[in-house]
Design brief:
The protein is an alpha/beta fold. The protein has six helices and six strands. The strands form two sheets. Strands 1, 2, 5 and 6 form a four-stranded parallel β-sheet that branches. The chain has a two-stranded antiparallel ribbon with strand order 3-4. Helix 2 packs across helix 4.
């Protein structure tokens, strides 16, 4: 990209990456804009995240399973091998898939969701677009999470 094109560039970041990696990418974007003399605005950055709000510990486990099921698995990924072993542990190791599913989602009890949103906020993210939220998720979010950020 030519540096002059940065003046109209915004960024939307991956929905499955960890909050730490998201913060690193926001910092990289901010630095790149500032290096070419352009002002950075938090409204230039948005992330998409699954919203999975749990009512209890048992419900949290169901929400993790729901998030894992929602992740797209490329058709050839489970059969790709390297030296006779699957080449991508996300598709072959349930724990790795579970960790990835939890790492990027706004997932858990309302208090956990607030903590996760604060983590994104401290990493420079002020706009979060939710995916996969049920009407019940949105009602609980509006009642118990959103007031913290108003």
């Amino acid at each position: 990209m030519e540096w002059g094109e940065w003046s109209s560039c915004s960024v939307s970041l991956s929905p499955t990456r960890s909050f730490d990696l998201t913060a690193e990418r926001v910092a990289t974007y901010r630095t790149a804009r500032e290096e070419v003399g352009l002002e950075y605005s938090p409204s230039d950055v948005a992330v998409t995240r699954a919203l999975r709000i749990a009512h209890s510990k048992a419900d949290r486990a169901r929400q993790v399973e729901r998030q894992m099921a929602s992740l797209t698995v490329p058709a050839d990924s489970s059969t790709a091998t390297s030296g006779g072993k699957p080449s991508n542990p996300f598709y072959s190791a349930p724990d790795a898939r579970r960790d990835t599913a939890e790492a990027g989602a706004i997932l858990g009890t309302p208090d956990e969701c607030i903590e996760r949103l604060h983590a994104l906020q401290s990493g420079g993210v002020e706009q979060v677009l939710f995916t996969g939220a049920s009407p019940a998720d949105l009602r609980l979010f509006a009642a118990e999470v959103m007031p913290t950020f108003q």
